[in-house]
Amino acid sequence: MLEKIAFKVSEYTGVDLKVTDPIVGTGVNSISTGTPFVDTKSFQPFDPKTILDINKKILVTQLASARVIKEAGDILGYSFTDDQIKEALEIIKHRAYELNRAITPKKELIEIFDKVTGK
């Protein structure tokens, strides 16, 4: 509910929400590095889904780790070997810098995952 109110206020005022805005920022409950998988309690002291009704988002960026690729693959129905994860990471990181774009869109991610798994 709070997220919806914040987006409406942002819309009415013309002031965009930033990724880093506490509680309502666009980055709340998003994961783009492997840190949250290692020490969830330190990274996320409360569950944003339970408290704020904000679903978890996995953002695959140039900062992605093997854990992020595995999680994104699981969500999209892929099962990777360690070598496939390594290959996907190389492609994702190369493209991010080549295209000067941090986040890999879902459609492109699926294409990369298909390529590394031979689908």
Protein described:
- The longest helix is centred in the last third of the chain and has 18 residues, at 82-99.
- The chain is globular.
- It folds into 2 domains: 2-58, no CATH class; 66-117, no CATH class.
- Strands 1-2 form a two-stranded parallel ribbon.
- The chain has 119 residues and is mainly alpha-helical.
- The chain has helices at 2-13, 35-38, 40-43, 48-52, 66-76, 82-99, 106-117; strands at 30-31, 57-58.
- It is built from 7 helices and 2 strands.
- Helix 6 crosses helix 7 (106-117).
- The mean pLDDT is 86.
Describe the largest sheet.
Answer: 2 strands, parallel
How many domains would you count in the coordinates?
2
The neighbouring-strand order within the major sheet is: 1-2
Number of helices: 7
Strand segment tally: 2
Give the DSSP E fraction (strand runs of 2 or more residues). under 5%
Category from helices, strands and their pairing: mainly alpha
Uncertain runs with pLDDT below 50, 5 residues or more? none
Order of helices and strands: HEHHHEHHH
